[in-house]
Specification:
Layout lengths: L63 H18 L3 E3 L5 E5 L3 H13 L5 E3 L2 E5 L6 H21 L3 H23 L4
Helix pairs in contact: 1-3, 2-3, 2-4
Length: 185
C-alpha cells in the first residue's frame, strides 16, 4: 500500500477460503491445505463462515452420499487435528474424540463462534454432517474450523487454562448429577 493510499477492509467479513490442495490420488490434502495452522488463528479474526452452518434434522444415514460425506469429514478431521472421529449415533453429527471434557467444550464454543454449529458431550466434540454437503463448501468448512480450533487449543492455549476448563466441566457435571439426585432439573 502506498503512503497516501487507503483501503476499506471489512474486518468482520468472513475469512477468504484457502485454495483446495489435492494428493496424487485426487483426494483432498487436508493436512497440507494451509501453509501454517497459525494462519487460521482463532482470536481476533472474523468468523470462518458468513452464516451459521447448522446440523440438519432430516438426514438419511443409510445413503451412500451421507456415508461418503461422513468419511471425508472423518478423514479431514484426522489429517488436520490427529483426533479420531466417526459418525455419531445421532444422525447428522460427527463425533470427534478429544483429550478431555474441557477440550470438547472449549472447541464447541469456538467452533460456534466460527458460524458452524457444534456441541460437546463429555469428551466428544460433535460437528454437523449432511448428505448435501459439498467438498468445497460445507465439508471444507467443518474441517477448517476443526483445524483452526484444535491447533489453537494444542499450540497456543496455556496449560493452566486447559486445566481450568476441565475443572469447570467436572464441577458442572457434578452439579447436574446432584440436581438429578435431588429431583431438580
Amino acid at each position: 500500500m502506498k503512503e497516501n493510499e487507503t483501503h476499506d477492509i471489512d474486518l468482520s467479513a468472513p475469512m477468504p477460503s484457502a485454495p483446495m490442495r489435492f494428493n496424487e490420488d485426487g483426494s483432498v490434502a487436508w493436512g497440507d491445505m494451509w501453509d501454517s495452522y497459525c494462519v487460521l488463528a482463532t482470536e481476533g479474526g472474523p468468523a470462518h463462515r458468513e452464516s451459521l452452518l447448522q446440523a440438519s434434522a432430516t438426514v438419511d444415514p443409510t445413503s451412500h452420499k451421507y456415508q461418503g460425506v461422513v468419511a471425508e469429514i472423518v478423514r479431514g478431521v484426522k489429517d488436520v487435528s490427529g483426533l479420531d472421529a466417526r459418525a455419531s449415533e445421532q444422525a447428522g453429527w460427527i463425533a470427534v474424540e478429544t483429550e478431555s471434557t474441557g477440550m470438547a467444550s472449549w472447541l464447541a464454543e469456538k467452533i460456534i463462534a466460527e458460524n458452524v454449529e457444534a456441541r460437546s458431550d463429555g469428551k466428544l466434540l460433535l460437528v454437523p454432517v449432511a448428505e448435501h454437503y459439498t467438498l468445497k463448501g460445507e465439508i471444507k468448512n467443518v474441517v477448517t474450523v476443526v483445524a483452526k480450533t484444535t491447533h489453537y487449543w494444542k499450540e497456543h492455549l496455556a496449560s493452566e487454562v486447559k486445566r481450568a476448563m476441565d475443572m469447570e466441566n467436572m464441577f458442572a457435571n457434578i452439579g447436574q448429577k446432584l440436581k438429578g439426585i435431588f429431583g431438580r432439573k
